[in-house]
Amino acid sequence: MIITIVGGGSTFTPGIVKSIALREKDLEATEVRLFDIDEERQNKVAVVVDYILKELNSNIKLTVTTDKETAYKDASFIFAQMRVGKYAMREMDEKIPLKHGCVGQETCGCGGLAYGLRTIFPMMEVIDDVEKYAAKDHWILNYSNPAAVVSEACRVLRPNARIINICDMPIAILEMIGKCLGDVDYLKMDYKYFGLNHFGWFTEITYEGRDIIKEVREYLNEVGTLMPRQYVEAMKKNPFKEGERHASQSWIKVWNNMKTMMDLFPDYLPNTYLQYYLLSKDVVEHSDAEWTRANEVMMSREKNLFEGVDHYLKTGEITKDAFYHGAHGNFIADLAVSIKNDLKQKFIVIEPNNGNIPNIDDDVMVELPALMGKNGAEVIKIDAIPTFHKGLMEQQVASEKLLVEGAIEGSYAKVLQSFAMNKTVPSALIAKDILDDMIEANKEFWPELK
């Protein structure tokens, strides 16, 4: 059982490998391969990965490569987590829209669309290479962002690919809820959820007969944020501490905005990313166009990992800040376990609608709970959704579909329509200004637009 991690130089790689190693028997994992085009970066990350495997007394073989055939040969699972352009381009994705008074975020708004244009064709290359070299019954489990755009491109360009597009944010929300309520194990929660990637709602969350959404409303009214009290205090003292992925300085406002969104629309619990669409003016006003989340990550998680590697190589000591382990790594590893062993466990995944939401078009890539087994996703159908949520989803889908069409056709007009259609952009003239700046910034990565 070979598992290949595409984007082996990611700061998330050590945590993912730890999650794999902790499930070594369930996965029957014999080898983990790290594959990246940035050899120097990946080799540094591999130092931490090697340490983790030894610390856990794992029998898993570690292979580190920049060669496609070596990476994919006979692999059963491919965990994809590419970041095309790395954090330097994420910084542009965030800062260019903010310069024009619009949301600057790596997966939402114009930043997400820009990131999508960089990722579409590299993702198709991964699919083709995996198809050429990997085991015939392989599965690609794709974390590569922006997942909504990537999954739509896969649907259009590689409809027969053995790929499951996923996102851990809904599970991370459940994990944060569990920490806020204190006595709730998020892994034992049951839930109903619908939407698009980074654009969805929990309609029901229960735990041992308890209505968790009701308890969240009460907690928000009391505390004012969906973060545990101790996290907020810790962030005030050390804003660059990255011990918890979703508990750093830039996330405080995100979790505060959960209360605002639930005050406005109390029926469902929103995905945190909906703040960028529903509260875009407020988000921009509270953003610093000179210091965005990209800068924060580079000065915390990135800095911690690579300084930790240097420290380990000099002293033989490794710090816990050198890697992240939690819902992100556990989610993808647990999904692989469910698929491999045909467990039919429930996960939230991104799949073609095909009637699963009856009043949404079949060709929309929706995010819904599904039972995951050896043949992939058995999506759990739901009833028709309300007009408000349907309208929001359809506007977002139109923006994403236009972007994919524009990428394939090399059409400036369609990409402009995509930017103008996005709810985070108040004017087509602003959309054009942002797009023109993005074209200049992405010359090395985007297809030519005419």
TrEMBL record:
InterPro entries: Glyco_hydro_4 (IPR001088), Glyco_hydro_4_C (IPR022616), Lactate_DH/Glyco_Ohase_4_C (IPR015955), NAD(P)-bd_dom_sf (IPR036291)
Keywords: Glycosidase, Hydrolase, Manganese, Metal-binding, NAD
Cofactor: NAD(+)
Cofactor note: Binds 1 NAD(+) per subunit.
Pfam hit, one: Glyco_hydro_4
Highest rank taxon of the organism: Bacteria
PANTHER family found in the cross-reference section: 6-PHOSPHO-BETA-GLUCOSIDASE-RELATED (PTHR32092), MALTOSE-6'-PHOSPHATE GLUCOSIDASE (PTHR32092:SF14)
Family: Belongs to the glycosyl hydrolase 4 family.
UniProt-recorded name of the protein: 6-phospho-alpha-glucosidase
Organism: Clostridium gallinarum
